[in-house]
Write a structure and sequence with these properties.
- 2 copies of one chain form a homodimer.
- Chain A has about 350 residues and is of the alpha/beta class.
- The first copy, chain A, contains 14 helices and 11 strands.
- Chain A has helices spanning about 15-25, 40-45, 70-75, 80-90, 105-115, 150-165, 190-200, 210-215, 225-250, 255-260, 265-275, 300-315, 320-325, 335-340, and strands at about 1-5, 30-35, 55-60, 95-100, 125-130, 135-140, 175-180, 205-210, 220, 280-285, 290-295.
- The N and C termini of chain A lie far apart (about 45 Å).
- At the A-B interface, helix 8, helix 9, helix 10 and helix 11 of A face helix 8, helix 9, helix 10 and helix 11 of B.
């Protein structure tokens, strides 16, 4: 198996990327193709000892910035590490692409250069989030901000397959993120989507209130890309601010400092449980290739975990599983309506 | 000043409502009109000693359930405590209405029976949320799930006035909740709204990423009602699940239990800071009357705090301040476009 890694993607590239790759080479039986500015990659690799025969370097001289619009890899920077990396998946011998770079650019490049899986209209990014029970898979967390009910339905199918194949959850439940439990809640979009999911998706448990999500209300939870992005950003921001708040308040009181020291192991365990980068990256589903998105701020461990999750996707041939389950009509409004009338 | 309180609203009504009202009578120099099933109200009041001359009981024999659709107070249950309570504001001697009942029903009843303030097209619910810095005001957190850019702009004006008059924040900043900082981020709706706010709102600081919200990126943050509702529900759910998780993990380790005991005072302080019911209720802005919504799960203290915030609104004559600042054309797409071309 050979995983293509975007050496230039993310805030701490290429240093963190290459450090993560070296860790991955140590833990997993894979080969790596590093795409990016050759000189910088080599300079970084020199710091480590690893089996050179397992690493290929592919030069790409353009870099996509975080502020670049999503279409940059298609119009301007066709020789960026993202564009070159994605396109490699069309050749033999390259099994997946991992990038901590500009998410929009990765999504656009994957959509255009790899194309969509048959039956999937729009890609969706999924993310495994820890819950009180264990974890849930939220999809779409940002690929498609102009989603239609059919897209949400297709996300549901892909999410169920992902959880079953990669996360080994048998017969996952699916819920629709909504602002209330009753089927009448939400805007017209949610009501229509609810109807469609009810008629099309196995194990659909109905609406999941955003407040119930973190208690583990459903294995897989679907939503449009904008809402999903808000959910993960609010969560990350709130946890971060709460952590900062706890630190600030604890420092004010010597007894509390002592208490925190005694709780250190427990707090570390909780922090680890709550850190979604522990669970891997954010898979981009629906495109005809295995693409894994890692957070822009990914440290070496996050990169390594993203690679681990990617390996699982390849091993389980996720896209073949998605293709066999998604039939184009299964999520059309017509069939949805017919199914719910059965 | 006489505050009308919905005795039947909320999960713990009338017990929690009346307990909170009695606390309010003790702390604030106001009179109360309790609306609801007279017998049940009297039965509950008997448990307390208070100045009976300060409490009026107004009988309303219908109860709005949490699952009732929003329009119930207009079509079916016209004699519910919500409908009766809201309508009282049109008479002399009743200054504000507080309810922990069905939010949609309160919004609908207020909109229909009180009408909108001139220049405001749609009502919006605001909520003060604690941040790492201090607090921010998020609006709209659920009144209008089909918002147009003009509505967001009107929310911005109302939010600024609310923070200035009631929360005594001089010259509050306003940000637009978005999934990225750049003006190009978000769907078409966000881009259009960004342009409009930039041209119309004083102290507009641009986009506020959901992750930056809790660090205190802006005093007032505006969004559509659906997104806002997701934000507050995700926050509440995440905090609750995190608290449950911490308890569960601490119990596993005796040292951690000891540590938690030493940190008890600090943890209590943090919990209090993070509890948004400490800051009052959620004001419904834009209607021609002072209406305060309290969370369905409100305990007596939350009811009392909601009443406290309501008193401030009445004292500062918030609606007069809003009326004088909101001019209908100020938030129209035309004027917004013209302003941004200056």
């Amino acid at each position: 198996m050979k995983i293509v890694v975007d050496a230039m993607g993310g805030d701490h590239a290429p240093e963190a990327v290459i450090a993560g790759v070296v860790e991955a080479l140590d833990e997993f039986d894979i080969n790596i193709a590093l795409v990016g500015i050759e000189d910088r990659i080599k300079e970084e690799l020199q710091k480590y000892s690893y089996d050179k025969s397992r690493v290929e370097i592919i030069h790409a001289d353009e870099i996509v910035d975080m502020q670049d619009p999503a279409t940059v890899t298609i119009r301007k920077k066709k020789n960026s590490s993202i564009a070159v990396g994605v396109k490699l998946l069309k050749e033999n011998g390259y099994d997946a692409f991992v990038s901590a770079g500009n998410t929009g650019a990765v999504v656009a490049a994957s959509t255009i250069y790899l194309g969509m899986l048959e039956g999937v209209e729009r890609p969706a990014i999924g993310l495994t989030l820890p819950t009180y029970k264990s974890f849930s898979f939220l999809i779409d967390v940002g690929a498609n901000t102009a989603a239609k009910p059919e897209h949400i339905c297709q996300s549901a199918i892909m999410g169920r397959v992902y959880m079953r194949e990669v996360m080994e959850v048998s017969d996952p439940t699916v819920g629709l993120l909504n602002i209330g439990e009753e089927a009448t809640k939400g805007s017209n979009f949610e009501k229509e989507t609810h109807k469609l999911l009810k008629g099309s998706i196995k194990n659909f448990v109905g609406n999941v209130e955003a407040s119930a999500f973190f208690k583990g209300a459903s294995d897989c939870v679907v939503c449009d890309g904008y809402t999903g992005n808000v959910v993960i950003k609010v969560s990350a921001g709130l946890l971060e601010a709460t952590g900062m708040l706890i630190k600030r308040e604890v420092k004010k009181n010597p007894l509390a400092v002592l208490g925190a020291l005694l709780m250190k192991k427990t707090l570390k365990h909780i922090k680890k449980h709550s850190d979604y980068s522990e669970y891997g990256g954010a898979p981009l589903l629906g495109v005809d290739g295995v693409v894994m998105i890692s957070h822009g701020r990914s440290n070496p461990k996050a990169i390594k975990n993203a690679i681990r999750a990617t390996i699982k996707e390849v091993e389980h041939d996720l896209n073949a599983a998605i293709k066999s389950e998604i039939k184009k009509e299964a999520c059309s409004s017509e069939l949805g309506a017919r199914s719910s009338q059965k």
